[in-house]
Amino acid sequence: DKILVTGANGYIPAWVVNQLLEKGYAVRATVRSKEKGTHLEEYFKKFGDKLEIAVVPDITADGAFDEAVKGVDGIEHMASPFHNNVDDPEEFIRPAVDGTVGVLKSALKNNPNLKRIVITSSCAAVITVQPEARTFSEEDWNEASIKQTEELGRKADAMTKYRASKTLAERAAWDFWKAHKSEVNWDIAFINPPMVFGPPIQEVESPEKLNTSLKAWYDFVIGDDSKSRDVLASSNSWIDVRDLADAHVLALEKEAAGGERIIITQGPYVWQEWLDIANSIAPSVRPNGKIVKGYPELEEEKEYKIKYDNLKGKRLLGITYRSKEETTRDTLADFAKRGW
Ligand code: NDP
Known about the structure:
- The chain is α/β, with parallel strands linked by helices.
- It has helices at 11-22, 35-43, 90-110, 143-152, 158-180, 212-223, 229-233, 241-253, 271-285, 311-317, 324-337, and strands spanning 2-5, 26-31, 51-55, 74-77, 116-120, 134-136, 187-192, 195-197, 235-240, 261-263, 267-270, 306-308.
- The longest helix is centred in the middle third of the chain and has 23 residues, at 158-180.
- The chain binds NADPH dihydro-nicotinamide-adenine-dinucleotide phosphate.
């Protein structure tokens, strides 16, 4: 089978390409320019012509994916902006929404017989940011970020704009599918991950160039020892990028995943935990590197405020997830190899 992966030069998508190729699939990988495909061609050269690079310069253009969808058996739609450098919310919302609906439109037009389209949504489309501790599930939708972004416009913070873009994109995809499902043989599935950590295989020259989630991990654990006690006590949930990539492949393969939105998370964390684990492991994997110490006493009083129910993912996809220790060890070892 051949699978289309969009945004293939990104952090999570590159791992999805890796797991697909390792499992014997052929992959058509879209990137925004030819140059953005060269690292992938080099990194995956042992797979020969099983990997094909396709350039889609503007995912918001009408019919952008019309050619890319031809002849594939499944799609992993992953391209979407996730960074902090945003002014007008439309800079996030247009590529997120039009990119996602564009893939579905092209599949409707040029490939009604493919089996499934898996779309990388996010826990950003699930969470309502609030001071109280709460466990969220697939039933929850982040309406609040859409409202705030409408109200504040450019003044909304980057994460609020990002969360709005992911919620609007997922909603638009569900609406499109409900309107057109009788015309096609494919179905859709959504993967909703929280913060994603673990070793990078995309092209990345320096820590500053890391993708947003792993850059945050790098800064907390290695790069920035000035973070306050409150910031280190703050919590979120996470998943290892390799487990998330496996989940994307299984979501294509498992019949029962069709028509579902699925939260993929190992569990919650407070930032200080990553520092404590890194400090305990670092001497063996990163002997010369410094790790931020933070406030180790926080361990005694840690409180997980942002939790997600992960039972559906485990039930439908049958995966077990890597531990914080394993992810930390592999990530530090990878950074050490790069001399970071
Ligand atoms: P990366 O930034 O590493 O990858 C993003 C990919 O999307 C790149 O290929 C990028 O292309 C492409 N992209 C970004 N903006 C645009 C745009 N305006 N037009 C076309 N393509 C664009 O991020 P991740 O790997 O983290 O993200 C992959 C997916 O996972 C996204 O959908 C993201 O929302 C989602 N996600 C990520 C989480 C995380 O913690 N990392 C958590 C939950 C969901 P280019 O390199 O050319 O900019």
